[in-house]
Amino acid sequence: MKYLLDTNICVHLLRGQFDLDxxxxxxxxxxxxxxxxxxxxxxxxxSKSNDPEKNYSLIELISEEIKVLPIYNGIRFYADEKARxxxxxxxxxxxxxxxxxxx
Length: 103
Fold this sequence. Notes:
The chain is mainly α and 103 residues long. It folds into two domains: 1-69, 5'-nuclease (Rossmann fold); 71-103, no CATH class. The protein is 61% helix and 9% strand. It has six helices and three strands. The protein has a three-stranded parallel β-sheet. The chain is globular and about 45 Å long. It starts with a strand and ends with a helix. The mean pLDDT is 87.
């Protein structure tokens, strides 16, 4: 995996914006992944949307095409980085740290 796609990129992809489908094709979909956190954020967005069923269908499509990485492998990184950043007074959201730990 070379590219870990975040939630914003996935939303733009699902909306057909910025020629992301072509860009992903050019780098190879097999070289892309999302984290379970991104999948959860996409599901939340679908649940609060005006058409949850349609959006859940789109999420299913993306999760069938793009590898979904578990967060388990990033837990140690998350813990270490959160502690280090807290000591420095520089906090980052928990989800962002967990996503970063999977890359």
